[in-house]
Design a protein that fits this description.
By secondary structure, chain A is of the alpha/beta class. The first copy, chain A, contains six helices and 36 strands. Among the domains of chain A are: about 90 residues, 3-Layer(aba) Sandwich (Udp-n-acetylmuramoylalanyl-d-glutamate--2,6- Diaminopimelate Ligase, Chain: A, domain 1), CATH 3.40.1390; about 30 residues, no CATH class. Chains in contact: A-B, A-C, B-C.
């Protein structure tokens, strides 16, 4: 899939500043895009990256033009334009591939006869694919791994050695990203990254791991992930971290090494959690954690009759402080 | 499935006030039931609807008899009687249908050879059914939609054009409703409604959408739903609303248009959320939201050592107010 | 699978106190292990159980030797040694079984032609196995039960009469247990228990129920479990309890009879919840509940602008109390 700047500009309804016949082979992040890739900068926050980007071209609005030293396509709504362009670089965007008519239903020594394996799939020695799995094209699985029944591993994902993927897990589902168009409707972003899973990783039953937008979602060696967990696009989980059931980690958050994350935890997007952090069950993590330690945040259990009385005052804590003339600086 | 009032009264152990040979073709809601349908009113809260109901008959207890102008079946436990009756009007209540022996394993141009398609299924042009899906009887899917691997779409559900149903998602599972019988045991309610999904909708991996009890669960055009989300029976989600992963929406709640609901949010049942509401991640929504705006409710992250000290006082906020002689009216 | 103490000691790098040729047939809990089983005591907390254990042998560290009256294997890291040993007693630890090449794809009167059934599976009269299920070896299912599409039931699990297992559910997945080794890496524990489900139980779509470590996970008669719920290893759920969607129950917690647990609740491990307890949606249960009643714990919904002001003071409640010179004993 190679397009000229002219073709791309027509697709996203932009105007070219530069060479219309320059050929673009893919989409890259602003910081790492090669001269054969196109990138985008959605607002002034990215102006410093834009100034030094090596991308072959960038999609920007006219306000950012002065920071741009490479070819550009000018549009009004950069993120919308980017969302439209992603679909042109997505694998499998034709019916023949998507219907998996080429998936093989065969009996390899270690593959259950009812699992379907795509083309260009590599499966290492002693790895077992159990019943009713779907392993899409271009997937790589290392040695001694166990893929349990009813698992879906989508196009291009990589799984290391000695891994266990439990029943019903989905590896490589589309990330959740959508741009708003001018009619206030969502325009979906095709996710072009993969999921890269290291060695000695276990993924629990019915857990979902989304693929990255441009770069990959990464789960490093020795990570243990329980059931019904959601790992969003571009999350990176450091070595030997363990995560209990029903936790969700939003997009682009980076978790350190040897963390222990309890069940039902919610971690919002774009955070950094350092190494050796323990987060207790059902806690919401809404800020970076820069120091190792044990963290918690939930309302202790009460009789409902008590909770109703407490709740009224809880929502007025700032007004109580004001009424009592307490100032934050008074507290220590 | 047509039953006389006499047959129904025998099934639910009630006494008929009216014509025993009247024929009933289905169950309807009290407000919308036709003269060919039976409905029910569980308590006095429904007396006004009962007075003007056009149902062919209603199941009530004797206290409601005075409000009823149509044929009635009198029982002691109305909800229990209703739960028993639902199973008589459920599709597929015979082994031949339930075992899906009639599901077709065929190679249509756009259907993976390993997916099973029921009878009376309509699949639109350019729609793709990926590997290992189960599409039960009477399902309708529009054009240009993508049903990814290992998806289950149950009897009678409808999916529009340009939709994506991600791997492992379940559309049309039974709602969670049970009546207590006289021995304090649960009597399940068969859910007779469907799931109706509009155009340009995406449903995430391993997300579940339950069918409605009598009327349908509805997901309107342009809605984007992430992974591992639970949509309960009779929820209605308005156009262009986006919902992030691991959120749950309980039964009969209605969500407006263009809402943005964060990850891990819990919305309790029977609520109304207006248009253009933003709810931050992990918030519990326990009341109607009538004004657009941004809403939040969770405990900020603390060191566990701090949380333990804070928690003690948190559960005593009303007592602190009382001790300090603060009154709610003092606060502004 | 029978091993001598000598073989086991070599595997876990321990030294034998007792008869090296004693034969061990399995792993048992310290309190209930038979003379043919080996058990373990990880620390002094278990010294009383150790003193009266009937196990054939125990794995302990040298500090516990004085409390032990049976044969012992001494190691430095007892839990790590136990984790390694579990894998020797796990069923199916050979490729031939794991790849399910022996699973049958046949058309019994009540089994969908596309479901795979292992060896030594017992399926009762009128029970229906829907499409694309995987029923592994040694599973028992009673009469009149319905196993919906895409369900996975793993080795040795038992399901009673009149049960419904909804689409995508996983019964008998591995529990989440890992020991740390001396390099700070996780060593997984193979779970040797099963899942035992009684009669009249329903399990929701994409719900996961993990098998027990040594003894079983138990779901008693009449329990109703909604979608996307996680039931961890060795949880016991009492008769006629109902649990709404997206709740998680951590390992070894025991729930009483006739409880009603709302959606999105998190219950931490090793707790006891008595009979007739109601827990409202999204509450965290972090302590035993010994009295029936209604319990709650979450932050009431606020406008985000209000929540930001409230949150600052919420995390300083202990300091506010200190500043105001309030003592806990003053509050009533």
């Amino acid at each position: 899939m190679i397009y000229s700047l002219k073709e791309i500009a027509e697709l996203i309804e932009g105007s070219i500043e530069g060479n219309p016949s320059k050929l673009i082979h893919g989409i890259g992040a602003l910081d790492s895009a090669s001269p054969k890739q196109i990138s985008y900068a959605a607002n002034e926050k990215y102006k410093d990256s834009l100034k030094i980007s090596n991308a072959g071209a960038v999609i920007i609005n006219k306000n950012l033009k002065k920071f741009c030293k490479v070819d550009a396509i000018l549009v009004d709504n950069v993120y919308l334009a980017y969302s439209i362009l992603t679909h042109k670089f997505k694998f499998n965007q034709n019916i023949e591939n998507l219907k998996y008519s080429h998936l093989l239903n065969y009996s390899d020594s270690n593959i259950s006869g009812s699992s379907l394996i795509g083309i260009n799939v590599k499966i290492g020695k002693n790895t077992i694919i159990c019943a009713n799995c779907v392993i899409e094209d271009n997937v790589t699985i290392g040695t001694n791994s166990l893929i349990e029944p009813n698992v879906t591993i989508q196009n291009g994902c990589q799984i290391g050695n000695n891994c266990v993927i439990s029943p019903g897990a989905v590896i490589g589902s589309e990330g959740f990203g959508n741009a708003k168009n001018n009619d206030n409707k969502w325009s979906s972003i095709a996710h072009l990254g993969n999921v890269i899973i290291g060695n000695n990783v276990s993924i629990g039953a019915n857990t979902t791991v989304d693929r990255g937008t441009i770069t990959d979602t990464e789960i490093h060696n020795g990570v243990k992930i329980d059931n019904l967990i959601h790992i969003a696009h571009n999350v990176i989980i450091g070595e030997d971290t363990a995560i209990a059931a029903k936790t969700g980690i939003a997009g682009t958050t980076i978790i350190g090494k040897r963390c222990m994350i309890g069940g039902g935890v919610g971690i919002v997007g774009h955070l950094k959690i350092t190494d050796d952090v323990v987060i207790n069950a059902t806690t919401t993590v809404n800020r970076n954690i820069t120091k190792p330690g044990v963290y918690t945040g939930f309302v202790p259990l009460m009789l409902h009759s008590e909770w109703k009385k407490v709740g009224i005052w809880l929502t007025k804590l700032d007004k109580i402080a004001s009424f009592m003339k307490i100032k934050l600086k008074d507290l220590r």
